[in-house]
Design brief:
The complex is a heterodimer of chains A (229) and B (387). Chain A contains eight helices and no strands. The model of chain A has no long low-confidence stretch (mean pLDDT 86). By secondary structure, chain B is mainly alpha-helical. Chain B has three domains: 26 residues; 136 residues, 2-Layer Sandwich (Fusion Protein Consisting Of Minor Coat Protein, Glycine Rich Linker, Tola, And A His Tag, Chain: A, Domain 2); 178 residues. In chain B, helix 9 crosses helix 10. Classes of the chains: A mainly alpha (229), B mainly alpha (387). Chain A: Keywords: Cell cycle, Cell division, Cell inner membrane, Cell membrane, Membrane, Transmembrane, Transmembrane helix.
C-alpha cells in the first residue's frame, strides 16, 4: 500500500491541477528540446562532413571554373559551397563590367559575407529554444513545487496531528515538479553548449575558407593586372 | 519544394528527431516505473520506526497474576460477585431463547392463517366464475325459447287469418288449442326456470357450507397447532429451567471446590498475597483496566517514539528493555535498564527519549487503582531495520 501511494505515477496523478499543468508544460518542453537536440546534432554532423568533402575537392587543384560549373545554379547549396558559389558568381559578373580590382574584390567580399551570414542563421536556428528551455524550466519546476507545498501546508492545517507521514506524500508530489524541471534543463544546457560550440567552430571554418578564397581571387586579379599592364 | 528538400542535406526534417525524443522519454518513464519497486525498500523500512516499542508483556503478566490472586481472595471471602455473573448471563440466555421461540411460533401461525385465507379466497373466486357461467347458459336458453315462441305465434296468426274466412267454426277450437299450447309452453318454461333457480340456490348453499366447514377445519387445526406449540414452549422452558438449575448447582459445586483449593493455596502464599494486596483489588476490574492501560501505554509509546532519536550506529538487531516508574501525576521518577542492548549509547538514547516524552499527564485521567498498576512498566526499544 505504501509503495503504491508513493510511486511516481501515483504521485503525479494525485497532484493538484496547477502542479499537473506545470508538469505537462515541462514534459512538452523536454520533448521539444530533445527534438531540437537530435535535429541539430544530425544537421551539424552532416554540415561538417560536407565541409570536409568540399574542402578536399577545393584544395585538390581542380579548376575553379569547373568547380563552379559543377554546382547547379538553381540549386541553393549550403556551407562553404554556398559561400564559394556566391563569391565566384559575383566575381564572374563583375569581371566584364569593371577593370578596377578593388571594386571586384569588394563586391566578392560583400556577397560572401551575405552568404556566410545566411549560413550562420541556418546553423544556429532553434538553438535559442534550447537555451530558453535550459534557463526557464528549473524556474517553472520550482514554481510547481512551491505551489504544491503551499497546497500541502494548507491541507496540513486541517488535520489534527501533523506527522511526517501526513506531509511526506505532499512534499514528494511537489518535488516531482522540480525534478522534471531539472530533467528538462540539464540535457538542454549540455547540448546547447555543445551544439553552439560546434556551430561556431563550423562558422569559423567557413570564414577561414572565405578569406582563403578571397586571397586566391586577389592573387588571380593581381596576376591578371600585371599581365595586362 | 519537395525536390529542394530531398537535395538539401542539412535539412533533415523533424520526423526522426521527434521519434527519437519521444523514445528517450518513454525509456525514462519506463525506467522510473521499473526501478521503483526495488528502491521502495527504504521508505518501507523507515516506517518501522513506529513499531519499535513493546511494553505490554510485563504489564499483562502482572495483571494476570493479580487477577489470579484476587480470585483466590474472593473465593476465600465467599464473595458472590463473580459467581453471580454466569447465573445472570444464563438466565438472560434462556429468556432470549424463549423470546425467539415465541416469535417463531407467532410467525408460523400468522403464515398458516394467511395461507388458509388465501385458499378460501381462491375457492370463492372459482365458485363465482362457475355461477356466472351457469347464468349465461340460462339466459341463452331463455332467449332461444322466446324466439321460438314468437315464430310460432306469427305462424299461428297467419294460419288464423288464412283459415278465418273458410273455417270460422274451427277458429274457436283452434284458438283454444293454440291458447292451451301457449299456456303449456309457458308453464313449461316457468317450471324450467324455477328448476334452474332452485338448482342454483342449492348449489350456492352447498358451496357456502363447504367453505364454512373448511374454515372451521382450518381454525381447529390452527388451534391445535397453537396448543401444541404452547406445550412445546412450556416443555422447553421447563427444560431450560432445569438445565439452569443444574448449571447453578454445578457452578456452586465448582465454586466450593475452587474455594477450598484456593483456601489451601492462600495459606501457602499468604506472605506473597499480603505483598500484592493493593494490586489485587485493582485487578478485580482487570478486563477494564487492561483496556485503559493499553490506551495509556499506546499514548506513552507514541510519545516516546516521537522523542526517540535513534543513534546512527544502531543496528537492526539491537533491543533494550527499560523499566519506567512514574510519579502520581505522571512524571518520570526513575528509569532503569532491565536488559541492555550492549551499546551504552543506544541505552542512553532510549532513556533520553523517555525523559523527553515525560510527563505523561494522561495517567491522572485514569482511575486510582489503575494508576497504581500503571506506575511501573517496561518499554522495549528496537529500531528494526531502519539503517
Amino acid at each position: 500500500m505504501n509503495d503504491n501511494a508513493m510511486s511516481i505515477p501515483h504521485l503525479i496523478m494525485s497532484a493538484s491541477t496547477v502542479v499537473q499543468l506545470v508538469m505537462l508544460l515541462l514534459t512538452v518542453g523536454s520533448i521539444l528540446s530533445w527534438v531540437v537536440i537530435f535535429q541539430r546534432s544530425i544537421a551539424l554532423r552532416r554540415a561538417q562532413k560536407e565541409y570536409a568533402q568540399f574542402e578536399e575537392t577545393f584544395w585538390s587543384g581542380v579548376d575553379l571554373n569547373e568547380l563552379y560549373r559543377d554546382i547547379p545554379a538553381d540549386d541553393p547549396r549550403h556551407g562553404a559551397e554556398h559561400i564559394f558559389q556566391a563569391g565566384f558568381r559575383e566575381f564572374n559578373r563583375l569581371m566584364p563590367k569593371t577593370r578596377n580590382t578593388t571594386t571586384v574584390l569588394e563586391g566578392v567580399q560583400r556577397s560572401m559575407r551575405v552568404a556566410w551570414s545566411r549560413e550562420e542563421d541556418r546553423l544556429t536556428q532553434h538553438l535559442v529554444f534550447l537555451a530558453t528551455v535550459a534557463s526557464a524550466s528549473p524556474y517553472i519546476g520550482l514554481f510547481g513545487t512551491v505551489w504544491g507545498i503551499m497546497g500541502s501546508f494548507q491541507s496540513l492545517s486541517m488535520t489534527q496531528q501533523a506527522t511526517l507521514a501526513t506531509v511526506a506524500p505532499w512534499i514528494a508530489e511537489a518535488l516531482i515538479a522540480t525534478a522534471m524541471g531539472l530533467f528538462a534543463a540539464i540535457p538542454a544546457v549540455i547540448f546547447y553548449n555543445r551544439l553552439s560550440n560546434n556551430a561556431s567552430r563550423l562558422l569559423g571554418k567557413y570564414e577561414d575558407f572565405a578569406e582563403e578564397f578571397h586571397a586566391i581571387l586577389h592573387r588571380n586579379l593581381q596576376g591578371r593586372d600585371s599581365a595586362s599592364s | 519544394m519537395a525536390v529542394k528538400k530531398t537535395r538539401d542535406p542539412q535539412d533533415i526534417g523533424y520526423l526522426w528527431p521527434t521519434v527519437f525524443a519521444i523514445a528517450v522519454h518513454l525509456l525514462i518513464v519506463l525506467f522510473s516505473l521499473v526501478e521503483w519497486p526495488g528502491s521502495d525498500a527504504e521508505p518501507d523500512s523507515s516506517s518501522i520506526v513506529q513499531a519499535t516499542l513493546v511494553s505490554t508483556e510485563a504489564f499483562t503478566n502482572r495483571a494476570q497474576q493479580a487477577n489470579d490472586q484476587s480470585a483466590a481472595m474472593q473465593a476465600a471471602e465467599e464473595d458472590e460477585a463473580t459467581v453471580e455473573e454466569p447465573d445472570t448471563s444464563a438466565a438472560e440466555e434462556a429468556a432470549a431463547e424463549e423470546q425467539a421461540a415465541a416469535e417463531q411460533a407467532a410467525r408460523e401461525a400468522a403464515a398458516a392463517e394467511e395461507q388458509a385465507l388465501e385458499a378460501a379466497r381462491a375457492e370463492a373466486e372459482a365458485q363465482a366464475q362457475r355461477l356466472q357461467e351457469a347464468a349465461e347458459a340460462e339466459a341463452e336458453r331463455q332467449r332461444e325459447a322466446e324466439e321460438q315462441r314468437r315464430q310460432e305465434e306469427a305462424e299461428a296468426e297467419a294460419q288464423r287469418q288464412r283459415e278465418a274466412e273458410e273455417q270460422r267454426r274451427q277458429e274457436e277450437a283452434e284458438a283454444e288449442a293454440q291458447r292451451q299450447r301457449e299456456a303449456e309452453e309457458q308453464r313449461r318454461q316457468e317450471e324450467a326456470e324455477a328448476e334452474a333457480q332452485r338448482q342454483r340456490e342449492a348449489e350456492e348453499q352447498r358451496r357456502q357450507e363447504e367453505a364454512e366447514a373448511e374454515a372451521q377445519r382450518q381454525r381447529e387445526a390452527e388451534e391445535q397447532r397453537r396448543q401444541e406449540e404452547a406445550e412445546a414452549e412450556a416443555q422447553r422452558q421447563r427444560e431450560a429451567e432445569e438445565q439452569r438449575r443444574q448449571e447453578e448447582a454445578e457452578a456452586e459445586a465448582r465454586r466450593q471446590r475452587e474455594a477450598e483449593e484456593q483456601r489451601r493455596q492462600e495459606e501457602a502464599e499468604a506472605a506473597m498475597q499480603r505483598q500484592l494486596e493493593g494490586q489485587a483489588q485493582a485487578a478485580a476490574e482487570a478486563q477494564q483496566a487492561a483496556q485503559a492501560a493499553n490506551s495509556f501505554l499506546t499514548i506513552v509509546k507514541r510519545a516516546v517514539e516521537q522523542a526517540w532519536i535513534i543513534p546512527s550506529d544502531a543496528s537492526d538487531s539491537m533491543s533494550a528493555t527499560l523499566q519506567v516508574r512514574l510519579g502520581p501525576s505522571g512524571e518520570v521518577l526513575t528509569t532503569s535498564v532491565v536488559s541492555s542492548s550492549g551499546d551504552g549509547n543506544f541505552d542512553r538514547s532510549a532513556m533520553q527519549a523517555i525523559e523527553h516524552a515525560a510527563p505523561f499527564g494522561e495517567l491522572r485521567q485514569l482511575p486510582a487503582e489503575q494508576q497504581r498498576n500503571l506506575r511501573q512498566f517496561n518499554l522495549r526499544f528496537t529500531p528494526g531495520d531502519v539503517r
